[in-house]
Design brief:
- It contains 5 helices and 4 strands; from the N terminus they run βαβαββααα.
- The protein is α/β, with parallel strands linked by helices and 148 residues long.
- It has a 4-stranded parallel β-sheet with strand order 3-2-1-4, with helices on one face.
- The longest helix has 13 residues.
- The radius of gyration is 19 Å and the shape is elongated.
- The two termini are 38 Å apart.
Amino acid sequence: MATIAVDFDGTIVEHRYPEIGEERPFAIDTLKMLIKDRHKLILWTVREGQLLDDAVNWCRERGVEFYAINRDYPEETFENNPHFSRKLNSIDYWIDDRNIGGLPDWGTIYRMISHRRTWRDLMREERQSATLTPYEEIHPKKKPWWRF
């Protein structure tokens, strides 16, 4: 089980801030699958006040309930944590459209999380499976001497 911070604008929906854009293909379905897989999702966004409430309600109407919003755990407040900051500390994965290389499609994101693979791992596996010889397909861990 992982803790995953998810951006809203440009990631779950198309970037139309301060309005809410159209859902990015398969974003909600993937988030629901991650929740079903018992991951903790934290909505991590620059939105505040009514704009934040609108984003949370938009997700809730589509069946996505976040573990926490702009904090590490739901109960965290300035009163019980005088060092409270919107900087998240206990995150295993960040899903954000502003990462280097852009946002992969949501199917790839799910595979990366559920199979614990990096982007590089997935690309390497894809290249290798596209170039396997019939011998390698039968004996995937063994390489013939001429492929070393």
